[in-house]
Design a protein that fits this description.
Glutathione S-transferase Yfyf (Class Pi), Chain A, domain 2; 2 domains; alpha+beta; 8 helices; Glutaredoxin
């Protein structure tokens, strides 16, 4: 049994869901509202962030990067030439660099602002920091996403996938963060057609289907979110 503590629109949770999908692992999803600061959850991950992976008779594995490394070490060889973290050390560096770019830089500049302001704060109490979104933060994130799209386009114009010739953690991390932003309708897809075409390839993979079915109470996803031919 594999449990994943997650939030449907948390981009780091989405990254690990995509990874698990590529491994053919269907987890038991347990939604966690991190702003509630549940004691039981904090005992699993004192940082209080999603995702957290829990397998039978094993300690909790917290954090997207740690989970990705753990899954590669325990299951990666089973994928053969479809391994999401390549065998060669130099290739692994590039995958890790780009995985970090999206899980840290893109998150800090784009997806964290948009998901927190437009989703989490809707459900938080005033004491938890809930209320109307900070539109200055939203505007900054909407501006920042443009150069990230251009960077994706730059990479794909010389590579088949973001980090090289094969799909990797880099692609899944980037697509996970973009999917959270796309749910909200805040990705300017016309900014870079190459980036858009790459995202469409990732979005059409079977591992992506569960994400496209995600919904948030009281919110309707953008028209491009579920459209594979957007």
């Amino acid at each position: 049994m594999t449990d994943l503590y997650y939030h449907p629109l948390c981009p780091h949770s989405r990254f690990i869901r995509l990874v698990l999908g590529e491994f053919g692992i269907e987890p038991n999803l347990i939604e966690e509202r991190t702003y509630e600061r549940r004691r039981e959850f904090l005992l699993m991950n004192p940082a209080g962030t999603t995702p957290v992976l829990v397998e039978d008779h094993a300690p909790p594995v917290p954090g997207a990067g740690t989970i990705a490394e753990y899954l590669d070490e325990t299951c990666g060889l089973g994928l053969g030439d479809r391994r999401l973290l390549p065998d060669h050390p130099v290739a692994r560096v590039e995958v890790r660099r780009l995985m970090g770019w999206f899980n840290h830089k893109f998150f800090a500049e784009v997806s964290d602002h948009l998901v927190r302001e437009k989703i989490y704060r809707r459900f938080m109490t005033a004491d938890q920091g809930g209320g109307a979104p900070d539109m200055d933060a939203v505007r900054v994130a909407r501006s920042n996403v443009r150069y990230h799209l251009r960077y994706i386009g730059y990479l794909i114009r010389s590579r088949r996938w973001l980090a090289g010739d094969t799909l990797s953690y880099a692609d899944l991390a980037a697509a996970a963060h973009l999917s959270s932003v796309d749910f909200l309708g805040d990705v300017p897809w016309a900014e870079d057609e190459t980036a858009k075409s790459w995202y469409a390839r990732v979005k059409s993979r079977p591992s992506f289907r569960p994400l496209l079915a995600d919904r948030v109470m009281g919110m309707t996803p953008s028209p491009t979110y579920v459209d594979l031919d957007f």
